[in-house]
Amino acid sequence: MTFEATLRRTAEEVEAVLDRLLSFDGAPASRVVDAMRYAVLGDGKRLRPFFVVETSRLLGVEPAYALRTGAAVECVHCYSLVHDDLPAMDDDDLRRGRPTVHIAFDEATAILAGDGLLTYAFEILGDEATHPSPAVRAELVSALAGAAGAAGMVGGQMLDLEAEKAPVGFDEIVTLQNLKTGRLFRFSCEAGAILAESGADDRSALGTYADRIGLAFQIADDLLDEEGDTAEIGKRAGKDSEAGKATFVSLLGIDAARRKAEELVEEACAALDGYGRAAETLCEAARFIVRRRK
Amino acid sequence: MTFEATLRRTAEEVEAVLDRLLSFDGAPASRVVDAMRYAVLGDGKRLRPFFVVETSRLLGVEPAYALRTGAAVECVHCYSLVHDDLPAMDDDDLRRGRPTVHIAFDEATAILAGDGLLTYAFEILGDEATHPSPAVRAELVSALAGAAGAAGMVGGQMLDLEAEKAPVGFDEIVTLQNLKTGRLFRFSCEAGAILAESGADDRSALGTYADRIGLAFQIADDLLDEEGDTAEIGKRAGKDSEAGKATFVSLLGIDAARRKAEELVEEACAALDGYGRAAETLCEAARFIVRRRK
Asked: Which residue of B25, B32, B184, B197 is the best one to mutate when testing the A interface, meaning the one whose CB has the most A CBs within 10 A?
């Protein structure tokens, strides 16, 4: 099976779990539930859940636990997109080739749908169905909250908004992107080790892998923003460079940015050397991240 | 000590814990942290934490655990105020007698500060310092997420926005308010039983108490909105009736609404009969809720 086929199969499994989890039968406020479903369901690469599922597979975790944990991460990722797209934030009206939530519904509903998804991620993780050990569930909650909060993703989005107003250099972009996207990738990769109740060695190897692919992912995103076209990537291309925002590409140039991304992929794969061929899919995932066209 | 003095003393203890918890030393995105602190710290009755602390005291829980759990609930309560005050939602510029977060900072920062506070509540609950038993921590997370999410507070705010467009009756207002404010009160009262690892009897008694005071609180709020003045209550008075929104007062009339609130207080106190004098402070809290002037 090609890597793309493996990714697609996992995405379908994640989609089915999300569809079931987001069916709040009899919920009185159906509009916000509709908006939550609109924000999450449909085509998405489900990259973060994929990393939860693959690191879990590597360490022998029950697939059902990994899928629920992956669904929780995806809820956090999708909430962040809904809020980032709001007029007061990045003011985007297109996402995955469809109107963003505040366009398809309205701003108030989009804010609430985001809040609902963020909250639901923790409800999923706290539930016994995610793992029989409450210690594992509590650790997943702490780790996801740390990755998503003010010292993580929320802080990264704040820095990103501030970066539009003042010039930033390479180190600041690395910090910003590590918070904004890296921390959630890192959680996704460490989740396998948490679910497997693994020791420090697994956590360290997966953490290094995650840090490298997180940065590679963002460099690849900047390259896509520079080189892609709107129809293909499903959101407005060229937006960052139009806005005069510093990106890895504007700071390094296209060629050096591409080389840097490829170096990071090699480092990511090297971090998993100890697992031998069992880690091949994760290594392919790292390569996929920099070659994807959307 | 009068009840007001007891409430104030607990509020001071909660404030100290919140101040410490909201000190993210060295966090790179200081603006969002400043906004989170602005949203939470300062004078507040800290009613929800008070119920966590008092139900915990009733059941012999270590006060430090109750204070951290109370701080988590207050983070959720304050995030909901920040988001509800946004222009796209209730569009309020005054809260606790001060400019709301999106006025004092800006809309994007207010959205992020709310997101950060909601996330942080779960980080607090997931942490070992909140309770040594991971099963207790996981249950707190599940219960708070259920109370705050689309089938709870977020759903209630959605219904509230929809109620501005279509007339609603008494039963719908009860459902709406139960979701919007009742569920978080209920969590606050049940938290003591969760922290104490209590059985079904305590949970049932505290749940009944919580349901009654939650509804009484909202009726009292509607009475204040009708009768209070802006300077005293610290937010714009008369807003709901101006907007033509159905409230308990508009549906029942002032006198019947007041009688209903007092009946609910008696039922709340009766639910705690089994605890004898140990529950006296909780009973006074129920009475306070309907006599408060802000």
From this structure: B32
- For residue B157, which of A100, A84, A108 has the smallest C-alpha distance? A108
A202: exposed, middle or buried (C-beta count within 10 Å: 0-12, 13-18, 19+)? buried
Residue B229's domain comprises: 3-291
Contact B112 A154 (CB under 8 A): yes
| A151 at B interface, C-beta within 8 A | yes
Say which residue, A280 or A28, is predicted with more confidence: A280
Choose from B76, B103, B122 for mutation: most chain A CBs within 10 A: B122
B 108-127 residues with CB below 8 A of A? 108-109, 111-112, 114-116, 118-120, 122-123, 125-127
CATH code of the domain containing A156: 1.10.600.10
Structure-block tokens of residue A182 = 């890296």
Closest CB to B32: pick one of A33, A119, A155: A155
Nearest Cα to Cα of residue B187 among B247, B248, B122, B258: B122
How many domains does chain A fold into?
1
Instruction: Give dist(CA A288, CA A120) in Å, integer.
Output: 30
> Average pLDDT over chain B, rounded to whole?
93
DSSP E strand stretches across chain A: 94-95, 98-99
Task: Specify the pLDDT at position B179.
Answer: 95
pLDDT confidence tier of residue A141, bands split at 50, 70 and 90: very high
CB-CB contact of A73 with A187 (8 Å): yes
Q: Per-residue pLDDT for B235 more than 60?
A: no
- A59 to chain B, any CB pair closer than 8 A? The answer is no
| pLDDT confidence of residue A152 | 96
B69, pLDDT greater than 90: yes
Q: Find the DSSP H helices in A91-182.
A: 101-104, 107-126, 134-148, 153-163, 170-177
**pTM across the whole model:** 0.94
